[in-house]
Amino acid sequence: MESDDLKQIVKDKYGRIAEQAGKQNSCCGDTSCCGSEGTYTVFSECYDKLKGYDPEADLNLGCGIPTGFAVIKKGDHVLDLGSGAGNDCFVARAIVGDEGAVTGLDMTESMIRKARENCKKLGYDNIDFVEGDIEQIPFEDNSFDVVISNCVLNLVPDKARAFSEIYRVLKPGGRFCISDVLIKGDLPEKLRRDAELYAGCVSGAIGKERYLELIDETGFSGVVTHKERKIGLPEKLISDFFDEDEARSFQTGERGIYSITVSAAKANNL
Known about the structure:
33% helix; globular; alpha/beta; two-stranded antiparallel ribbon; 10 strands; eight-stranded mixed beta sheet; single chain
């Protein structure tokens, strides 16, 4: 499937999620709960103890808490890629304070609208939400101190381009921290071909080794893997897409789906 077609599927899927916000039960902490249409898996972690957390902005679409490892400082300008309804932006804003700024980028119009509604309700004037593509980030070079992202790069068709764009918009000495979904071993081919599952963090994921290679090839340094955990899949998803041998290898760990939180820095001598 072409890149533009995949992006449209993601837009449509997450657009529906934004429009259904508030109508679904939270599955925070449940590592194997399905979304409303049963075609993607939510790998979220609980935010409710974090300063700045707004439950209405948490649609349970993340797979980590990148703000916890991003070394964000007061006064920083933070960019959140795939900002959704604003969850990570509001947590980042609590760290940067009034002196800093947070920008959320998302390609889904209804998510941007939802995030702006949440921001207006909270009364923040140093958070901006912008519609745009991670493969073509609409900001100038060297604009941000920190880039964060939560379970979004797995949805981007050209991950090398995405990391290149992150590098470009970071200031010299700036850093990123990303939570994402990766795979170990091969996933069943029919699952990888399922475009709807691309919009659910599964089919778009790549292997950890290649993921870290992309970061290194982009020019980042000081790569650190802060957290890694295996994700369970709903039994229905396994029965629909795995044959008996594939299911067994998934259960034994020969194959697997993982969430990872990783950070790295842009050189300071550019």
